[in-house]
Amino acid sequence: MTVIQPAASHFINGAYVEDTRGTPMPVLYPATGETIATLHAATPQLIEKAIESAKAAQPAWAALSGTERGRILRRAADIFRARNHELSVLETYDTGKPLQETLVADATSGADALEYFGSLSSSLTGEYIPLGGDWVYTIREALGLCVGIGAWNYPTQIACWKAAPALACGNAMIFKPSEVTPLCALKVAEILSEAGLPDGIFQVLQGAGEVGAPLVTDPRVDKVSLTGSVPTGKKVYAAAAAQMKHVTMELGGKSPMVVFEDANIDDAVGGAILGNFYSTGQVCSNGTRVYVHASIRDVFLKRLKERLGAVVMGDPQDEAVNFGPMVSAAQRDITLSYIAKGQAEGATLFHGGKAVDGKGFFIEPTVFTDVTDEMTIAREEIFGPVMCVLTFEEEAEVIARANASDYGLAAGVFTADLTRAHRVVGALEAGTCFINTYNLAPVEVPFGGVKSSGVGRENSKAAIEHYSQLKSVYVAMGPVDAPF
Ligand code: NAD
């Protein structure tokens, strides 16, 4: 049996810290269901210690020059890259995602974020605003203490996407990973510390909602950035709003992917595979409503079926495996219940649909056809490997149907007609649109949702606006002109 026990559950003020009075948190390897580590949720004493450490350390961190802060982040990025294999193996134990994926998508994208924001931090400035004689200058200031709360699908990437811009702007961050995947964020903290980050600037506290909630409501916390589901987002947003805190909400989706009759079929099928089955379908921006023009439905499905024949399920630590288990028994069971609903509501099970016997939380990649917009599987986020194929006839019709969702995270369009592609993405209600590809999220590009899918943007220069605030300083150059 593999054991991946970290030095301790939490990383506080520059060191691993344990308090076994906290609720035990067994960590299961999703491919076998075996317990590979046991951590403990943070006690109120540890939460207090982390907040105090952050508050004590943050002013000096903010007072460094951007170049000095950036140097540390970029050094951390280099360590991430040097240790990519080891970090990828850990990510695979934590999440069950195939090593084939984690080697190229997790520590590497975390490193990209650290490098990008580490490079940006030296050029974060205010501006000079001339007003005739008087003038104004603005100062870009840190917010103070930010709390990051993560989902379980990309534990390293989520920690880095939040920490890198927060730290670049001079904030401290306390990060609470998902209780399902608590291991990777500890490595992020350890590596940042090794790179020279002062103690207390990036800390990790473990636990479920009962550790997240008091962090969100603590008056010493200035900002909350959550990656999670819409129901959790509504709770956390409301709690933060009561104290007028800044928020970033990266929430769920039910994104449409539209395949027009002139699309390159192999690219469209490839996009649908990426947008439904990568990470075993556990990706927020997945294009799970695949609208295929009725005239190419059969050829699309034929090619999809052929390519699904190349799925290799098995131990995700084996680099030949390209489809891993779901993260937990609970998530597998939620997915299976949606598959049952799809069948009960009259969709055709075209491929897969079953849990795989034996150890671990495996489920087959699943495709439904004859799906209609009203069906539960076409409306609700499943967060598992379930693709819904729907058909359409007209451009205006498919735009209206694609937009008829409370969600608005992403959308994709496949067509050879670039004029149409731009016209359609212009009309789609989504934070990120893809033309002739799907689910690429480089750090240079703003990422986030509209409607219920979220508030704010991660990555790119846009993230700076969400981790800093402007102070305007009005400078009078003449006498004060008062009415009396
Ligand atoms: P979740 O909402 O159950 O949990 C998210 C995090 O919130 C966890 O760390 C959890 O412990 C914490 N939490 C729960 N209740 C809380 C409370 N009251 N106060 C503070 N924290 C609380 O989500 P999940 O199941 O971990 O992740 C799956 C969801 O995340 C999906 O909906 C998916 O679409 C979404 N997601 C979104 C993005 C994005 O960038 N938009 C990325 C990945 C995942």
What this model shows, in words?
- The chain has 16 helices and 20 strands.
- The protein is an alpha/beta fold and 484 residues long.
- The strands form five sheets. The chain has a seven-stranded mixed sheet, sandwiched between helices. Strands 9-8-7-10-11-19 form a six-stranded mixed sheet, sandwiched between helices. The chain has a three-stranded antiparallel sheet with strand order 5-6-20.
- Helix 2 crosses helix 7 (184-194).
- The longest helix is centred in the N-terminal third of the chain and has 20 residues, at 44-63.
- It is globular.
- The model has no long low-confidence stretch (mean pLDDT 98).
- The structure holds nicotinamide-adenine-dinucleotide.
- The site of nicotinamide-adenine-dinucleotide has 29 residues, from helix 8 and helix 9.
Proportion of β residues?
15-25%
What is the total tally of β strands? 20
Major sheet strand order? 14-15-16-13-12-17-18
Unreliable residue stretches: none
Could you tell me the mean pLDDT? 98
Helical content band: 25-40%
Radius of gyration from the alpha-carbon trace, in angstroms: 23 Å
What compounds sit in this structure?
nicotinamide-adenine-dinucleotide
End-to-end Cα distance, whole Å, is 83 Å
Number of helices: 16
Helix-and-strand structural type: alpha/beta
Gross morphology is globular
